[in-house]
Amino acid sequence: MAARLLEKYKSEIKPVLESEFPQNKMLTASLEKVTISVGTGFAMKDSKLMQNIADTISLIAGQKAVTINSRKSIAGFKVREEMPVGVKVNLRGERMYEFIDKLCSIALPRVKDFRGLDRNGFDGAGNFNFGLDEQLMFPEVEFDNIIQTHGMNISITTSTNSDEQSYRLLELMGIPFTKGRA
Question: Whole-prediction pTM value?
Answer without folding.
Answer: 0.86
